[in-house]
Amino acid sequence: MIEANSLAKAFKTRTGTVQAVSDVSFIARDGEITGLLGPNGAGKTTTLRMLYTLMSPDRGSVRVDGIDVAQRPDEVRRHLGVLPDARGVYKRLTARENVAYFGRLHGMSEADIGERTRTLSQALEMDDILERQTEGFSQGQRTKTAIARALVHDPRNVILDEPTNGLDVMTTRAMRGFLHQLREEGRCVIFSSHIMQEVAALCDRIVVIAKGTVMAQGSADELRALTGEDNLEDAFVRVIGSEEGLFA
Ligand SMILES: Nc1ncnc2c1ncn2[C@@H]1O[C@H](COP(=O)(O)OP(=O)(O)OP(=O)(O)O)[C@@H](O)[C@H]1O
C-alpha cells in the first residue's frame, strides 16, 4: 500500500519558481490498480518521483507498506519496483544481463535471478529478445526490459511512469494484461498516464491531477456520480475544467 499525504514540490528555475505539485493526497491499495491521470505538466512524474524516493517533498509525507519514506528510504526501496520516466537500459548488456544486474544489486542469488527472469520474461512476452544486446531495441522492447529489471526482486508495490507511452496497440494490450496480472497477485500498482481511455480501461481507482493538485478521485463510477455525467469523458472534462490533452 502506498499513501501520499499533502505532497508539495517546487523547482527554482532561472525565470522563477515552478510549483510542480501543490497538494496531492491519495491511498493506493494492494490488489488494485491506481491511475494518476492528468494533462502534460500536471505534476504526475514529480509525484511519482517523491513516492519512489528520488525526490524529497517540500511538504507532506509518503508511506509505503506503512514505512515512512523520509525516515527509512532504503527499506522502502526494497518494497518498490519502479519504471521511471527515463527507461535507461544499459546498451552494452543483453536484456537478461540488465535484469540480472539489478537482481545482484538487490542481493539475490543467481538461482533466484534465473527463476524470476524466466517468470517475468514469459509474462512480458520477451523470450525472443532476452539474449539480445539492448542497443538498437525498439521503445517497446526497452520498456519491457526496464519493467522486468524493476520487478526482479518481486516487490509488493509497483510504480510505472507512463508504461504504455510510445507502444503500439498489440504491445499496449500485452502491457495491460501484465498489469492485471500484477493486480491478481495482490500487488499495489500505480501508473501515470495522460490518456483517459488508458486509465479508464485499467484502473480500479483514478486520481485526477491538474496543476499539481488532485481535482477528484475515485472509481470510474464514483467520478461519474460526482460530476453528474454519464459519460466518463464528460466527467473528466468537468473535473479538469478543460479538454486539455486527456484524449488519445
Ligand atoms: N527538475 C525540474 N526543474 C524545473 N521544473 C520542473 C522540473 N521537473 C518538473 N518541472 C515542472 O513541473 C511541472 C510538472 O512536471 P511533471 O513532469 O511532474 O508533469 P507530468 O504530469 O508528469 O507531465 P507529462 O505528462 O508531460 O510528463 C511542469 O511545469 C514541469 O516543467
Automatic annotation (TrEMBL):
One of its GO terms (molecular function) is ATP hydrolysis activity. The keyword ATP-binding applies. SMART domains: AAA. Residues 2-236 form the ABC transporter domain. It holds the Pfam family ABC_tran. Keywords: ATP-binding, Nodulation, Nucleotide-binding, Transport. CDD domains: ABC_NatA_sodium_exporter. It comes from the Bacteria. The keyword Signal does not apply. Signal peptide: none annotated. SUPFAM superfamilies: P-loop containing nucleoside triphosphate hydrolases (SSF52540). PANTHER family: ABC TRANSPORTER ATP-BINDING PROTEIN, ABC TRANSPORTER ATP-BINDING PROTEIN NATA. Belongs to the ABC transporter superfamily. This is ATP-binding cassette domain-containing protein. It comes from Denitratimonas tolerans.
